[in-house]
Each structure stands twice: as structure tokens, then as C-alpha cells.
């Protein structure tokens, strides 16, 4: 799916994933069960999400027995979220879900985030009912006022209250057909959504920490493992050091616990950049419309193109094969032909 250009996107995303752990998730229509399949899909989704949105945060909420609880707080580390999902595979689905309690639990955190961030909730719903303590329409209106975008992926059938939720908050509602469709629908949420018209903009202070290897400096404890039960966790010489307060961290991106500065690396910002300036789709040219006496060579892999169609960049007019076209638009996000064109030298003044 090609991204649209000239669309204002929320690059710093804060996403809570609400997972249905009710009795309906024990159904075997997704193998081996709905719950196990969902958790496996979410592990892949979290990795893809952080690959596409490296300066964002993800948290997980489970709902069953008419209650909701956090499995994982908002975190910028994919490993922490995946670990929480894996540890939940032994939980037995039971009772009914509570959509209202889940939304209110997510809103308690999201409503206090800065206005320039994208606040989102993604609900994975297998049940056709929700057991709530109050009027869920009031909660839906609260989500709208707090600019929290709610989307739902249904595993069974369409539910009216989910339609109401997504329509009111500007989210997306899909019902899956099978496992492959489930993965396709889920991965669409890895792409940053357009921000609302009333969202504010602001400059964000970010720091680029310097890195020390294990051969430099003295052993010290990182702030990532301050709460660890094992005293040896986080004790090392190497790490990333905050340029403002010199606090040490194991991995990036992270918000400094001492000074509050957002710590990132240049590649993190570069990987977020391509969403704002999406690569245009290549023009599909029939192979028989090109001169038959000269072979058509793919500019990227340098192999002869024998397919029925050739894919041509609309700017640099270089030709590509289908495999390279898919790789360029799905992973590279930059046309090799355009990137190889050097700008003309400036005339001497």
C-alpha cells in the first residue's frame, strides 16, 4: 500500500493495544486458538511498528472477566513489549471483555501526553459483546475530546458499538477473513495515521547521545535497569550517554529519566522521514512496447527483465523489475536512480 504525499502525519506515536482475553478467544477458527494466533501476530506487528516508527511507544492492555489491566506500560523498546506478549500465552481466556474499562484505562495515560504526539488505541476484539459498568457512549465522547484515535480489528463479526467508536474518533474498523487477512489488516496500523485538523505543532528537543564501548571508562549502572531484581543487570562500561545530564542507557530511543530529554540516533529520524515524503509509484510499461532488439536491464539488480511489464520511475526514467520495485517501495523507500543523480555543480561566484 503506497503512502500518500503532502499529508500531515503523527510521527511520535503513543499506541495502546487492547487484546481481548475473554472466553470467545478460545475458539479454534484461528489456529491453534484466536488468542494464541493474535499474540503471535502482535509479536510480528510490534517489530514492524518500531521499524516503521522508531521514536514511538507501545503499551498492551488485556481485558477479560469484565475488567481491564495493563500487561505492559508504554515503552519504546520492542523487546519489552514482545516479552509481555509472550508471557501472556499461558493465560486462559475467560469471562467477558469490557471495552469501556479498557478505553478508560488507556485514556488515563494518553490524555496527559503532549499535544504534538499521536494518541492511539488499537482494539483486537474476538467477542461480540462487551460488559461495561456505565454508559460506553460517554467514554467514546471522552476519547474524541482527548483526540485519541481508536481503531478496531474484529475477529468474528461487525459490532455496532465498535463502529460507533471508530467513526466518532476517526479510527478504522476491519473484520478479518482469515490469518493472512488478519496480518495484512494489522500491519496497516504500522503506518502513521494523518493527524486531526485541530492538532497542535511544536518544536521538540531531542538529544543525540554519545556511545562508549566496553573498553572505555569505568563500570556503571544504566537507568534502564534501576528497577531490576538482579543487581548485575545493566552494570557495564559501555552504553549511550545523555548529552545533557550524562545519564547512561542500554538502547535507543528512550526518554531520559533524569532530564526528560528524548534520546535518539540519526538513523531513527531517517527511518521516520520516508513517511512524510513517500516515493511515487513507478509507471507500468508493457515490455512489448520497448525495442525488441535491445535487452532491458533493471537499474537496481542489473539483470535482464523478461517479464511482461517494466516498472519505470516517473522522475529519473530508469527501468526496474517487479522484485526491485517491491523492495524499493516496501523497504528502501528511495529510488536508486534518483539517488544516483548528482546535482549539477554550482557556478563559481
Structure characterization notes:
With 349 residues, the chain is an alpha/beta fold. The protein has three domains: 13-188, von Willebrand factor, type A domain (Rossmann fold), CATH 3.40.50.410; 206-272, no CATH class; 283-339, 2-Layer Sandwich (Herpes Virus-1), CATH 3.30.40.10. It is built from nine helices and 17 strands. It has helices spanning 34-52, 78-87, 99-110, 136-145, 160-169, 179-188, 266-273, 322-332, 336-339, and strands spanning 13-20, 57-64, 67-75, 118-125, 148-154, 173-175, 206-207, 210-212, 220-221, 235-236, 239-241, 248-249, 254-255, 262-263, 283-286, 309-312, 319-320. The strands form five sheets. The chain has a six-stranded mixed beta sheet, with helices on both faces. A three-stranded mixed beta sheet has the order 7-14-13, with no helix packed on it. It is globular. Keywords: DNA damage, DNA repair, Initiation factor, Metal-binding, Nucleus, Protein biosynthesis, Transcription, Transcription regulation, Zinc, Zinc-finger.
- CATH architectural grouping of the largest domain: 3-Layer(aba) Sandwich
Count of individual domains: 3
Shape category:
globular
Number of helices: 9
Helix-strand topology string: EHEEHHEHEHEHEEEEEEEEHEEEHH
Q: What is the name of the CATH superfamily of the largest domain?
A: von Willebrand factor, type A domain
Mean pLDDT: 88
From the helix content, strand content and strand pairing, which structural class follows? alpha/beta
The number of strands is: 17
Radius of gyration over alpha carbons? 24 Å
Largest sheet: 6 strands, mixed
Keywords: DNA damage, DNA repair, Initiation factor, Metal-binding, Nucleus, Protein biosynthesis, Transcription, Transcription regulation, Zinc, Zinc-finger
GO cellular component, one term: transcription factor TFIIH core complex
Family: Belongs to the GTF2H2 family.
Pfam families: C1_4, Ssl1
Amino acid at each position: 500500500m503506497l503512502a500518500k504525499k503532502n499529508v500531515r502525519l503523527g510521527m511520535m506515536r503513543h499506541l495502546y493495544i487492547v487484546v481481548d482475553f475473554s472466553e470467545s478467544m478460545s475458539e479454534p477458527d484461528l489456529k491453534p486458538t484466536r488468542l494464541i494466533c493474535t499474540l503471535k501476530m502482535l509479536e510480528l506487528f510490534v517489530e514492524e511498528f518500531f521499524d516503521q516508527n522508531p521514536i514511538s511507544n507501545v503499551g498492551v492492555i488485556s481485558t477479560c472477566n469484565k475488567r481491564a489491566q495493563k500487561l505492559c506500560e508504554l515503552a519504546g523498546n520492542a523487546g519489552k513489549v514482545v516479552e509481555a506478549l509472550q508471557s501472556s500465552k499461558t493465560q486462559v481466556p475467560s469471562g467477558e471483555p469490557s471495552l469501556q474499562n479498557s478505553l478508560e484505562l488507556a485514556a488515563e495515560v494518553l490524555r496527559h501526553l503532549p499535544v504534538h504526539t499521536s494518541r492511539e488505541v488499537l482494539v483486537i476484539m474476538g467477542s461480540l459483546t462487551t460488559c461495561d459498568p456505565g454508559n460506553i457512549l460517554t467514554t467514546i465522547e471522552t476519547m474524541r475530546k482527548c483526540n485519541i484515535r481508536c481503531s478496531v480489528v474484529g475477529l468474528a463479526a461487525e459490532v455496532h458499538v465498535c463502529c460507533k467508536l471508530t467513526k466518532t474518533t476517526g479510527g478504522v474498523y476491519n473484520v478479518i477473513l482469515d490469518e493472512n487477512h488478519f496480518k495484512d489488516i494489522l500491519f496497516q496500523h504500522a503506518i502513521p495515521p494523518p493527524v486531526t485538523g485541530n492538532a497542535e505543532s511544536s518544536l521538540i528537543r531531542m538529544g543525540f547521545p554519545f556511545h562508549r564501548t566496553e573498553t572505555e571508562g569505568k563500570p556503571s549502572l544504566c537507568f534502564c535497569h534501576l528497577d531490576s531484581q538482579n543487581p548485575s543487570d545493566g552494570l557495564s562500561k559501555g552504553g549511550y550517554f545523555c548529552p545533557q545530564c550524562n545519564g547512561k542507557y542500554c538502547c535507543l530511543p528512550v526518554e531520559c529519566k533524569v532530564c526528560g530529554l528524548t534520546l535518539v540516533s540519526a538513523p531513527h529520524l531517517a527511518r521516520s522521514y520516508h513517511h512524510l515524503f513517500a516515493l511515487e509509484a513507478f509507471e507500468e510499461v508493457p515490455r512489448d512496447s520497448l525495442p525488441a532488439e535491445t535487452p532491458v536491464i533493471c537499474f537496481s539488480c542489473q539483470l535482464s527483465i523478461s517479464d511482461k511489464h517494466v516498472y519505470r520511475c516517473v522522475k529519473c526514467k530508469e527501468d526496474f523489475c517487479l522484485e526491485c520495485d517491491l523492495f524499493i517501495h516496501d523497504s528502501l523507500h528511495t529510488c536508486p536512480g534518483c539517488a544516483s543523480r548528482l546535482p549539477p555543480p554550482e557556478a563559481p561566484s
